[in-house]
Amino acid sequence: MKRWYLQPSILLGGSILLLVFAAALLAGVLYPGDPLDMVGAPFVWPGNDAAVPLGTDLMGRDLAAGLLHGARVSLLVGVSSALIALVIGIALGAAAGFYGGRVDAVLTRITEFFQTIPAFLLAIILVAVLQPSIGTIVFALGVTSWTSIARLVRAEFLSLREREFVKASIALGASDAHLIFREILPNAWTPVIVSTALLVANAILSEAGLSFLGLGDPNVVSWGSMIGLGRDALRTAWYMTAIPGVAIVLTVLGLNLLSDALHAALNPRLRRARQA
Length: 276
What we know:
By secondary structure, the protein is mostly helical. Helix content is about 70%, strand content about 0%. The radius of gyration is 22 Å and the shape is elongated. The termini are close together.
């Protein structure tokens, strides 16, 4: 049987994400200055000047420096907002699935209420009210993207709490905390882990959308803000939009491939099918 980590999807997705992480780590080494500084003439096309290999934008800023420093911002926003969504989703989903009854009914209604509001629209409102910054963007994306995790965890808890090993622990007098954190939650991680990669991908796309609309942090460079700035010169200098756009597409593609690979590796039915 072919080992799961040798699957093409995880090799390709992992390679793309390693490149993005390497770019984020090396940004300060390769381009130690402020990526918002002007370093040359505006509208230098990629390949026309060795000092700025990816060209400059309409303000004369180095696109290569912006691309590498933007990787930091995109990864920071994606991972941080995914963590916030995981904490909220797991807490509400676990409480609803474990206790059931009125607790489940109330928490399910709250989840459904948030699902009726478009997450990106709510994020726009929150960022506009709280003032655009990295902190408010992370908060807004985190508190608007937890609903899918909550429903996944709730479904897992509803199923697992009826299993024999949980009933055996109840018969032995285990506390609720022991049942939740030691018995049920460790067995409910598979769909959560698979969904986490998609949460990060959605957060990166949403941050790019907010920055494109002018709601990004003006003090940092992100891939979305680079696309938004290049919008004004789309006909005459399309490379300003294309370069950060390709970076976003590749990063989201890598995260989706990684999510698919984890789903194939951790799903017991798919694992048994491969072993048959």
